[in-house]
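job 3f2a | input accepted
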Amino acid sequence: MLPVVHNPYYHAPLPDGHRFPMGKFAAIAAVLSDLGFAPFHTPAPAPAEWIALAHDRAYVDQVLAGSVPRPIEREIGLPMNERVGLRSRTACAGTTLTARLAMEHGIACNTAGGSHHARAEHGAGFCVFNDVAVAIRVLQADGLIHRALVFDCDVHQGDGTARIFADDPSVATISLHAAANYPVRKATSTLDLALADGMEDDDYLAVLDEALERAEEFAADIVFYNAGVDPHRDDRLGRLSLSDWGIAERDRRVLAAMRRRGLPIAGVLGGGYMSDVEALARRHALLHVSARQALG
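job 3f2a | predicted structure (296 res):
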């Protein structure tokens, strides 16, 4: 059985018409339940001390107190109230639990996570806290890992993750993203593969195979896989043109490559932006289906 991590707190109410599809988190839990993935592992919200391992403590305290300055709130793009803060703390704990379960079972997947635009100083781009960075720092602090690999296939560059680990040789960051997409000012990952607008399945998978080959250069005790589905051709914030088959094949290839290396794999949801949250949830669930198959 593939371990799947979920908490209803992953959903936080947003104003009507908000661009972020918050409803997808409850929807993916329902889809996965129908597919036989339940019962889920349920994380408690992460303590401030965990989050401060990856973020400035002053910013962490602002989020927990609901006192994030308005300019930062605008950059994040979410109303920084108590429920959004709780959601972000819970997602950090969820990715940390996912990593622990991956080390025990080989693969585990969260139903949230992948908030890769949040940097040490503050959040950005719908990302309050960088859950993958928090999980890595917690595992390192606990002596469970020394080195980590972040393999990010969200359509947007994992700029926050790259910045957090820019001067840390213990963490390698690999990002496959649309070159012309957000953020305008890119960070420098360990390895960046910037893709042309409109790239379709075959060309994308060829670049992916190159990235997976080059990833073998980086020693790691665990890999965090950001399986954002916003490279899909129907995604309203993506600029690539992958099909459902292309997304699923991408996941299969990443999981198979990391399994061949014997690495535990912690899968996180990443981005996906559609008004039809049911269809979006089914697309996100491709990761979990592929992970269950990879476990055999």
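job 3f2a | Strands lie at 4-5, 107-110, 148-152, 171-178, 191-195, 223-226, 265-268.
job 3f2a | closed
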